[in-house]
Amino acid sequence: MDPGDTPGAPARDHGVPARDHGAPGRERWLDAAAGPIVRPYAVTRGRTRPSGEPLDIVTILVATGRRPAEPGRLARPQRRMLALCRRPYALADLASDLDLPFGVIRVLAGDLLDSGLLDVQRWSAPAAVPSPGADAAAPPPATVPPHLDQNLLRRVLDELRAL
Amino acid sequence: MSSARSNSPEAPEAPADERLDGPRVALKILVAGGFGVGKTTLVGAVSEIRPLRTEEALTDVGSAVDDLDGVAAKTTTTVAMDFGRITLRDGVAVYLFGTPGQERFWFMWNELSRGALGAVVLADTRRLMASFASIDYFERKGTPFVVAVNCFEDADRYEPPEIRTALDIDPHVPVLLCDARRTGSAKEVLVSLVEHALRLAGGSGRRG
Ligand SMILES: Nc1nc2c(ncn2[C@@H]2O[C@H](COP(=O)(O)OP(=O)(O)OP(=O)(O)O)[C@@H](O)[C@H]2O)c(=O)[nH]1
Ligand SMILES: [Mg+2]
After folding, report:
1. A30 and which of B40, B79, B80, B164 could share a cystine (Cβ 3.0–4.6 Å)?
2. ipTM for the complex shown
3. Reported confidence tier of residue A46, pLDDT bands at 50, 70, 90
4. Which residues approach ligand 1 with their CB closer than 6 A?
């Protein structure tokens, strides 16, 4: 799970005192993460913002299955992202699994969205089971974002309790 | 026993095979609080913790260097987060983000709190002040939050009402004691947060 130590990364920023933490490996990683910081942006060719609306850290992406016009022009991490996104994959999971900063993953994902290779998986609350005599002309349910979807929150609650 | 045969007019959208795996919907929970208050411990108690870092261009630095032949030399700051995922049934995934509490990390909080289910503010009775900033922040953003007071052995014990008063927390905001090292206790904190978010989602006054 631990991607390994980043050699020579200066421990700074966090100012975490040498407290006796239960998980030395983790803490070491956290400190090391403050290390070399410029290089990843070479990958994004210097842009720090995707075009279009910024993608949320838990946006779920799915490959469209379309073939890239010029595969050679994709950055290596983008090819990996496309491979992983054959199944739905959240941005945060991509960043963690590919060991790249979230900001970098977000820019790369933005490009793949723009070129139609990835799609955002939209959440729409499952429609309530229509009652037998339901009028087909009934107004469509308003779309509710997941964090405000009471049915979804209730499911989460039940399952958390049962864990 | 009613027939389970589905002759309902519209079967749920048949997903492509590969879509059966992976999350279908993601919810965010923030875990905030001062240094050493138990953020990492809490995230680790309820999920498998994984490395995740982010970095932000320091755009307010006077002379942002522009593209140099496509290779950027920008000043960035890197932050490591505690990152965990709880995978529930039917593709529902709850993502946990433990974030440093200092103001200079608030650029991340802005990112994380948008559309978040809610936040857990961890507090340590020996340093209650350290949780003021987090509480203010989530109050301002309208993010549902609960205050979980970590019970460290060498700390005096206070009851939630005293802590509520000391921190000047709204009566409707849950305040509970916890031991972030214990899965059951950490889970209770999350349950209390989801209950709270559900109450707010049911009532009015929650932002979109
Ligand atoms: N007694 C007790 N100790 C705890 C509890 N939660 C955390 N600890 C201990 O407190 C120390 C700090 O916990 P962390 O989880 O690393 O705290 P943190 O908020 O992630 O710290 P930083 O990332 O450095 O800001 C560790 O040694 C934990 O074992 C608790 O509920 N009770
Ligand atoms: Mg920590």
Report:
1. B80
2. 0.80
3. very low
4. A 16, 20-22; B 33, 35-41, 150-153, 179-181
